[in-house]
Design a protein that fits this description.
The complex is a heterotrimer of chains A (201), B (434) and C (247). Chain A has three helices and nine strands, in the order ααβββαββββββ. Chain A is an alpha+beta fold and 201 residues long. Classes of the chains: A alpha+beta (201), B mainly alpha (434), C mainly alpha (247). Chain B: Keywords: Electron transport, Heme, Iron, Membrane, Metal-binding, Respiratory chain, Transmembrane, Transmembrane helix, Transport.
Chain lengths: 201, 434, 247
């Protein structure tokens, strides 16, 4: 039987040291498991920049391409649709995209048409409310949801409405304008989505 | 800070007054014999590996595709495209083999020190059930990567059930859900492997530990400390030779855990296939229902039992005898508490006949492992010349090993039931060898 | 007595594990390929050989171009200009441009994907295979191989190695003649030593492709093992300290 006095200080020190070192080990072991949730090499490869020709998109038409699995709307806006944009400003939440929607587009698309070239809208087609894909309703005619409809997007999930530049109207659940992805023109009729425009940050 | 912890503890105690006593019963006031040796590490290590298998397994399911078309590709996806996926998979595959290493050593400990004897028969039976479920779990897990060895392993093992007279053929098709291992087979094995059997395993482990803590641990001397003198430095009414599991055995097990993990890490990072023993080369080829691998054999941990199938020839037009032999070899382990009725538990004080028999039993088991892995196909030509008749040698060696395996149980029954055993005096109290 | 009993058992187990470890590699004895996946220059040379001579028929469907660049210390431009002759993107896996149906027609069976060839067959086997092609007038494709007799594969590296022919063992008439050795009957662009090195590089590249994680895991592993040994030592001190109570 051990009758000598226990050295409590040494015992506490060793317990603490072992616990700390063991704890470091556990934390280190957890890291690979957390990292395994990062997008995999396959997801990253699938999320690589997408090149798209604009040649076959007629005025007034929309083309949807997938980039990082997201639907990207590419719209060839007609002069009438473009002309109607400034008139919507009073009805919009953030018409200049400088307020709550300041981070919803690259700097080079922070303008009245939210695009590099006025007629071409390139936009991630995800409603800023809860992530549904809004319907493209390009025609300017009275709609059940808006008698004064000037073309734009209507989200079937919770009835959010956006104009032809993806700018959100007032009085709907969605808070912000839809996202413009980074993109650039490789030549006059080819864009690359996922890469910032040359010369822009 | 201490106050916060104290008040949280009070809050919990008010609502679950049995929690703290339960903890004390199994940890700080579970008095284990103080003379545990090296062999007593394997219980806690088995628990550690079980946790490893569950955690890594959950993360593997996140990227694994349980379909015949996608399973093989998804394993390579895990190995290459998922960040650290290779580590998670190697932890799982190495863990599977080490699970059996640990379990076999744990079982041998139980046999050697008579831990299955009264009053611990229930602990032994529950442990054997764990072993049985673990074998099913391992087999189904082995099928999931859907390599060519997985496929043919599944085919052969399921076909064992086909030897059962009358219902065999229908049973095999029912198990596979097809006429060969296929999508349906993989899907159901996946479901069983990732949820059904792990639940059963966990339940059995809890029962195994509960049953153990009810009767208390055995020890290398096979002396029951509860029958010895009372009074130790922690409690005047508890066995004098008992020490609280926590902290004494928790810190001791921690040493075992550290060493075990170091060995496991060495395998995982430097030898993950262990030369084809833990991960077989032929499983790097996708499942192919038209081409059987050159050497079709189970992973090493099944081979001892599987070899028995090969060593028993068919008779009366059926191959069922080999399969009966295989299941019998496991069933006999279940019956060990009633086969061996010797009063002395530990090998330390048992008769010479028992020591010889146990040694032969271990060697026969290892011999069967060697036969089952086709290891003897390489060993014998090196030892006895290249021109020997391998089949004859294999069969002769394997049948002797099979006879010794079963002979152990027969001998043990005779030896103890007929009172042939001359035991040595068992000490009153546990001895320590420090 | 008991101590001796236990140590005997432990010794037997140790012996068994020892011999199994030594004899773990199966199959007939082949000369060592002597590959080293940490030899980046060798991997780069092997990759060039693969993309010049093999990718016409064989894919590496689990290996991405981007991964090759990362692991072999190459730039995106290196890989896309010098290795990738298809329109595959940088992040795409290496897929041969030969349609599987054509391959089936030309060779009777589709050329296998080589992503896991070394995992399945071993580096020594691949190395020996690449060195064992010989001219065989009886074969429909004109080539045969001593490691994989009647292989459906023509010998794409012949202009490097040259042509080997088989020297038969003298046997009784009527016996199936056995091949004794292969001799170089027509030299190729490389000397035999250069050709061995080239095939070693190619084997090395395929070994890397079989398990790209192998580059990383040894690197991480050394620290993990050292850490765990350190932890074990600490735990041992702690155990010693607590067990002063028990004697």
């Amino acid at each position: 039987m051990a009758n000598e006095v226990v050295d409590q200080g040494r015992r506490r020190f060793l317990t603490a040291t072992t616990a700390v070192v063991g704890g470091v080990g556990v934390v280190a072991a957890v890291v690979p498991f957390i990292k395994s949730w990062e997008p995999s090499a396959r997801a990253k490869a699938a999320g690589a920049p997408v090149t798209q020709s604009l040649k076959k998109v007629e005025p007034g038409q929309q083309l949807i391409v997938a980039w990082r699995s997201l639907p990207v709307f590419i719209v060839n806006r007609t002069p009438t649709q473009l002309a109607a944009l400034p008139a919507q400003d009073p009805r919009l939440v953030d018409p200049t995209s400088t307020g709550t929607s300041a981070d919803q587009q690259p700097k080079y698309a922070q303008n009245g048409t939210r695009s590099i070239k006025p007629e071409w809208l390139v936009m991630v087609g995800i409603c800023t409310h809860l992530g549904c894909v809004p319907d493209f309703v390009g025609e300017m005619k009275p709609e059940p949801f808006d008698p004064n409809w000037q073309g734009g997007y209507y989200c079937p999930c919770h009835h959010s409405r956006y104009d032809m530049a993806g700018r959100v109207y007032q009085g709907v659940p969605a808070p912000k304008n839809m996202v413009i992805p980074p993109y650039q023109y490789l030549d006059d009729s080819t864009i690359q989505i996922g890469v910032d425009a040359q010369g822009a940050a | 800070m201490a106050n916060v912890f104290a008040s949280i503890a009070d809050w919990v105690n008010d609502r679950a007054p049995n929690l703290a006593p339960t903890y004390r019963k199994h940890m700080t006031e579970y008095y284990a014999p103080k003379n545990f040796n090296l062999w007593y590490y394997f219980g806690s290590l088995a628990l550690l590996v079980l946790v490893n298998q569950i955690v890594t397994g959950i993360f593997l399911t996140m990227n694994y595709d349980p379909s015949a078309a996608g399973a093989f590709d998804s394993v390579q996806y895990i190995m290459r495209d998922v960040e650290w996926g290779w580590l998670i998979r190697y932890m799982h595959t190495t863990g599977a083999s080490l699970f059996f290493v640990v379990i076999y050593l744990h079982m041998f400990r139980g046999i050697m020190y008579g831990s299955y004897k009264k009053p611990r028969e229930l602990v032994w039976l529950l442990g054997m059930l764990i072993f049985l479920v673990l074998m099913a779990e391992a087999f189904m897990g082995y099928v999931l990567p859907w390599g060519n060895m997985s496929f043919w392993g599944a085919k052969v093992i399921v076909s064992l059930f086909g030897t059962i007279p009358v219902i065999g053929k229908d049973l095999v098709e029912w198990i596979m859900g097809d006429f060969l291992p296929a999508d349906a087979t993989l899907n159901r094995f996946f479901a069983l492997h990732v949820i059904a059997l792990p639940l059963v395993l966990l339940l059995l482990v809890v029962l195994h530990l509960a049953a153990l803590h009810e009767v208390g641990s055995n020890n290398p001397d096979g002396v029951d400390i509860k029958h010895g003198p009372k009074g130790n430095r922690w409690d005047a009414l508890k066995p004098a030779d008992g020490i609280p599991f926590h902290p004494y055995y928790t810190v001791k097990d921690l040493v075992g855990v550290g060493l075990f993990l170091a060995i496991a890490a060495f395998i995982i990072f430097f030898q993950p296939t262990l030369g084809g023993w833990f991960l077989e080369h032929d499983n790097s080829i996708a499942a192919n229902n038209l081409v059987t691998p050159a050497q079709i054999k189970p992973v090493w941990y099944f081979t001892a039992f599987y070899a028995i199938v090969r060593m028993i020839p068919s008779a009366l037009g059926t191959a069922v005898w080999g399969v009966l032999g295989m299941f019998g070899s496991i069933a006999l382990l279940f019956a060990l508490p009633w086969i061996d009725v010797g009063k002395v538990k530990s090998v330390r004080y048992r008769g010479t006949g028992y020591k010889v028999a146990l040694t032969l039993f271990v060697l026969a088991f290892l011999g069967l492992v060697m036969i089952g892995t086709d290891f003897t196909d390489e060993l014998f030509p090196k030892l006895f010349g290249a021109d020997i008749d391998m089949t004859a040698w294999d069969n002769a060696f394997g049948r002797v090993m099979t006879l010794i395996y079963f002979g152990f149980f027969v001998f043990l029954w005779l030896y103890t039931h007929l009172g042939w055993e001359k035991t040595k005096p068992v000490p009153e109290r546990v001895t320590t060898h420090d | 007595m008991t101590k001796r009993y236990i140590s005997t058992i432990a010794l037997a187990l140790g012996l068994l594990l020892g011999t199994t470890a030594v004899m773990a590699d199966e199959g007939p004895e082949l000369p060592s390929a002597a590959t080293n996946i940490r030899d980046t220059a060798s991997l780069q040379r092997g990759a060039h050989l693969f993309f010049n001579y093999c990718v016409g028929c064989h894919s590496l469907k689990y290996e991405r171009y981007e991964r090759i660049a990362d692991d072999l210390g190459l730039t995106q431009a290196d890989v896309m200009n010098n290795l990738n002759f298809t329109d595959a993107k940088f992040g795409d896996p290496v897929i041969s441009h030969m349609p599987a149906d054509d391959a089936q027609k030309f060779f009777g069976k589709a050329p296998p994907d080589l992503s896991l060839e070394v995992s399945a067959k071993g580096a020594d086997w691949v190395f020996a295979y690449l060195n064992s092609f010989y001219l065989d007038p009886k074969s429909p494709i004109g080539w045969n191989n001593t490691i994989l007799p009647n292989a459906a594969m023509p010998f794409p590296l012949w202009e490097l190695q040259g042509e080997q022919t088989a020297v038969m063992k003298a046997g009784k008439p009527g016996d199936d003649a056995q091949i004794e050795k292969l001799t170089l009957s027509h030299p190729g662009r490389l000397t035999p030593e250069q050709y061995q090195q080239a095939t070693r590089d190619l084997t090395n590249f395929l070994e890397y492709v079989s398990e790209p994680a192998a580059l990383e895991r040894r690197h991480v592993g050394i620290w993990v093992v050292l850490f765990l040994l350190g932890f074990t030592f600490l735990a041992y001190l702690l155990k010693k300290e607590y067990w002063k109570d028990v004697h």
